[in-house]
Amino acid sequence: MIKELNIKNFAIIDSLNVKFNEGFNVITGETGAGKTLIIKAIDILLGGKINKKMIRNENIPLEINGKFIQHGEVLEVSRIFRNDRSYCEVNKKRISISDLLKKYQSLVQFQRQHDSNDLLDTNKHILILDSYIGIEPDVSIINNLFSKYLDDKKQYDDIKKNASALRDKIKLNKFQLDELNSVNLDIQEESLINKRYKQFVNSKDIIDTITKYIDLNDDFQISPIINVQNNIKSLSKYQSADADIDDLVQRLEEVLIELKDIKDDISKLDTKYHYSEEEKNIIEDKVLLYEQIKRKYGGSIEAAIKFKKSLMSEFDGNFSYDDKVKKLKYQLDLSKKKYMDKAQEISAIRKEQALNMEQEINNYLTQVDMPNSKIKILLKSSERFRDDGIDVCEIYVITNKGEKFKPLHEIASGGEISRIMLSVSLVLSNMNPNNTLIFDEVDTGVSGATASSMGNLLKGLAATKQLVVVTHLPQIASKAKSHIYCYKSIESSKTNAKLTYLNNQSRQEEIARMLSGEKITQHSLKQAERFILDG
Questions:
Q1: Given this model, what pLDDT does residue 115 score?
Q2: Interior CA angle at 7 toward 5 and 8, to 5°?
Q3: pLDDT per position as a tens digit, 482-492
Q4: What are the extents of the domains in the chain?
Q5: What is the DSSP string of 49-79?
Q6: Strand order in the sheet with 108-112
Q7: Do the Cβ atoms of 56 and 13 come closer than 8 Å?
Q8: Cross-strand bridge partners of residue 108
Q9: 421/122 Cα distance (integer angstroms)
């Protein structure tokens, strides 16, 4: 139940504190004094949309704070709109709008005057029935199955419609996959191939150079080793006679040793480096293939791998048109079966519960002076699949004995619609006995004894749950346990919404005003006193 509501900077409300009691709370007052604003503030507090035009002063935030009793504990909910953004708090902790709606929207059940239009909109009738059953989780499942069915049907229809284009696409994609499979799409493998190719290219030059050097040393006339040996032999005759020649001979002998070492090392290189034109051509072809693959499929091995994966994913490894059609047809048949199984399960529940709902609504209709009226909830199978199942629901009604059931929107008057909507709301309210039920001017077109019957019905309901009712009818206001009166006050040339809590005389005067208008008479005062005593 809601205990207290604080509203700041909202429409004609500067600052307003509203306290509610257990049981039956009624809100009355002059037109435009803020009665419906209080209801709208509760709606916003629990996740409803905020209209920026409703902010009184754009320079300060709009703030709504409410205190509720839930499972015996105080729950404080706040909603603040500042700088074009809103945020929520529950017990001083931030919470998202989606979580707020999910966890706390059921604290209050609203029934507004314009909600009666739902009865005249046959598309809303199935929603009313589902709310009574509490079958929303199952409807959510059927909605997902419906979406899956539509997706599978579109894929199947598209492949059949575009058969020629798809066959060409499959042919192209198969060629692309074969081409991608012609090499090992591995970054390390490509790096190794490139390294081996460079070695082959270098090997030929190295081998040519080594061969020239070996040939040079084998030539008797120009061999550096032989020439150095000859020079040592010629100069060694004079070593003992000249110290400089001795030094020179020693140096030449060191050079000779180094030249022989170099020749040995070069000979070893000759066995290390290998070159085959045939092998080089094979490696070169692989390098060119890698370059071609990279050029055609994204510029890198990574991009080519990604493209290959996308092909495999799209065709699931099967590049046969007929097999793909067969697979999509199987998926479509399966999703259709799953949808129909769930839809038929929901339909059976709806048909069974519709009878119970009819009976409960008809019981309430008797209590609001419509004893000869009956509601019938008709369900028939839809000719097409729907996101909420295979049922088409429409509420039929008779308002007089001997008549035939007809669609509600064809025969019901405004006053009858209000009473039927009240009966529906009361039935739905039984689904959640712990929430607060709010009625915002649902008594349109009702007066006299009928209004008194509606008041008695609401009073009886208030014995088990909290009600907040905005009304213009004294017959209903007089039944309440707590009476809040809204009025307008002019302060500093600005209109402000105010309220007061009526007791005894002030309440009698307000009900008298509701009876006779602005001019209160002794007769209306006595009549108001009688209403209060009877309440």
A1: 52
A2: 155
A3: 999 999 998 88
A4: 2-144+339-502, 182-314
A5: ---GGGBS-TTS-EEEEEEEEETTEEEEEEE
A6: 108-112, 436-440, 467-470, 24-29, 482-491, 494-502
A7: yes
A8: 436
A9: 14
d(CA 267, CA 373): 117
Instruction: Please give the mean pLDDT across all residues of the chain.
Output: 86
Task: Give phi and psi for 470, each to the nearest 5.
Answer: -95, 125
The DSSP result for 430-492, as a single string, is: TT-TTSEEEEES--TT--HHHHHHHHHHHHHHTTTS-EEEE-S-HHHHTT-SEEEEEEEEEET
Per residue in 521-531, pLDDT (tens digit) is: 899 999 999 98
Which amino acid is present at 173? Answer: N
Would you state the structure tokens that stand for residue 108, as one six-digit string? 């209050």
Contact 328, 159 (CB under 8 A): yes
The CATH number that domain 2-144+339-502 falls under is: 3.40.50.300
- List the structure tokens of 512: 């008298």
Q: What letter represents residue 369's amino acid?
A: D
pLDDT tens digits for range 385-422:
999 999 999 999 998 888 899 888 787 566 677 778 77
Token pair for residue 197? Answer: 């190719």
pTM over 0.70: no
